[in-house]
């Protein structure tokens, strides 16, 4: 019962704030709406007994990433789009075809997951605990763990180089 | 009575489609990145749902790796947006045609 209530609240929050992200005209409002979506997704993770992932979701996503978005929105200010129609309009049909295909195959996958013999409900375990995740990261997923550190290093160096170019463009060193 | 995995997958699909619509109809590069974040979160919901269904931490490991990749992607994406659009009056990806062949 508890999981159903939590799922309902989180699903409504996720989709409601998600519609806000996609349809708000103002970039600032869209970014704040994204915070609502991310917190609702964190609630979903709690419903799925993944407290560590929920904590990381709040700290990294809602904390760090959205703040970075807000900084850039505040820095670039409110600028409009070019007048005239979308120059990529002719590609829209491919996008819509992809959307329809995604919906179709997704619906097939969901129906397939509910069909077949009913399996017993998963028991309550500590799969989502930090100890279990750390064990998985450092044993069977060690390569992903190391690749993660490389990805973060490359991103940090890339950000510094991009920012250096921007500072030099404004006459600084 | 638990919520079936299909419900989580349906929510994940709805969120992914929402993000895709956002990527298709937005022209502001910041909004494109926000919509991509929606799509990445949809993937994470499905991954952690599978992790719960099969009692296997691998799904959560994948989801955490996706979060790291998302953070790196946002850093580089926002750095590019600032570097490119700092001196332009419009914030529109249609403006970026200088590499047209």
Describe what this molecule looks like in 3D.
Chain A has helices at 2-23, 27-47, 51-76, 92-114, 130-138, 142-169. By secondary structure, chain A is mainly α. Chain A starts with a helix and ends with a helix. Chain B is mainly α and 101 residues long. Chain B has a single domain, classed as Orthogonal Bundle (Helix Hairpins), CATH 1.10.287. Helix content of chain B is 74%, strand content 0%. In chain B, helix 1 packs antiparallel against helix 2 (29-54) and helix 2 runs antiparallel to helix 3. The model of chain B has no long low-confidence stretch (mean pLDDT 87).
List key phrases describing it.
heterodimer; A: 173 residues; mainly alpha; Four Helix Bundle (Hemerythrin (Met), subunit A); 75% helix; B: 101 residues; Helix Hairpins
Strand content of chain B: under 5%
How much beta of chain A, percentage-wise? under 5%
Named CATH architecture of the largest domain in chain A: Up-down Bundle
- Record field, number of beta strands of chain A: 0
**For this structure, what is the CATH class of chain B?**
Mainly Alpha
Total of domains of chain B: 1
